Amino acid sequence: MKKAIILITTLFLFITATIFAQKIPSKKESMKVMKATNTYFMNKWPDAGKSIFTNKERPSNIWTRAVYYEGLMALYQLNPDKQYYDYALQWGEKHKWGLRNGIQTRNGDDQACGQTFIDLYNIDPKPERIKDIKASVDLMIKSGKVSDWTWIDALQMAMPVFAKLAVVYKDDAYYEYMYKMYMHTKMIEGGGLYNAKDGLWWRDKDFVPPYKEPNGKSCYWSRGNGWVVAALVRVLEIMPENAPHRDEYLKTYNEMIKALVPLQRPDGFWNVSLVDPTHFGGKETSGTALFAYGMAWGVNRGILDKKVYQPIIIKAWNGMTKEAAQKTGFLGYMQGTGKEPKDGQPVTYTSMPDFEDYGLGCFLLAGTEVYKMKK
User: Could you read off the pLDDT of 227-276 as tens digits, one per residue?
Assistant: First the structure.
């Protein structure tokens, strides 16, 4: 009898803990942590045009800051605080709505800022806000070259720009060229950077087999795959239902999301190396945030089964808010810049990545979609 009571009590506690873990946080809770982390950053970087110093000086209109502003604009949609808009506007104005390396650039890292520039144009359609980003993309299309996105991060940096321009100008040529460039990365670059069998991407041609992780498996970098999830989500969100090639993006999105489920850690995070937890294993916030963002977006739009994915999303969000987000607003367990597990190490609760901005952007993107899950 005593053993039966203990067993029943244990089972009850397990069920209670499971239900609690799957409970969607209140809108108030989600908004509170997003505001806190964002306030920390805005207070630390009051001048949006100030150069970033790490191992060298870089202008603040590079990709790292661009990803932050993607998250800020998502937060602004939920909480239209004027200081958020003004902070994004200041960023555009101080860079004169220009791209690092000018309109001749073909680099997605340079063009990523265009996502926010176009968002700000859509709020207040002043031509100077999108003049340079449109000119840059138009030059790419005119060239006929489609092999620029040689690393998967570029998909998130540049694809949404093409999609946004297609909507603004009602011109399918942007969709068609985006598709050609995407398919080159997916099927041709390095023999094809997407492994349909595993539903995951190699970061670039340097990691295509025979390259292997220490455990003998492929190197699937967490944040790299997170960038692709975000690219697909953002493009699907932007383009109308009848836009060209939408089915391709949706198919790949579903394949990736399904592949990610069994790779989640018990604490809700994903490892830096998705299939080799022994290679710089441990919690990592940026990749986790991007996966949570992608999954929550799918649930919110009825694309993913809520019963299956809600517990996964909440476990990831709870892990990040309870174990990575600190009282100061600083986000721990954030891998610094790089392209593989060994880069940007160590990744710990207190370690400071070389750039703080992109990780926060990923976190805000995830948070805004988790916020929408609470009806």
Answer: 999 999 999 999 999 999 999 999 999 999 999 999 999 999 999 999 99
- pTM equals 0.94
What's the CA gap between 255 and 235, in Å, rounded?
16
Q: pLDDT tens for residues 74-120?
A: 999 999 999 999 999 999 999 999 999 999 999 999 999 999 999 99
Say how many C-beta atoms besides its own lie within 10 A of residue 270's C-beta: 27
Q: Domains along the chain? A: 38-58+146-153+165-373 (1.50.10.10)
Give strand pairing partners of 325: 331
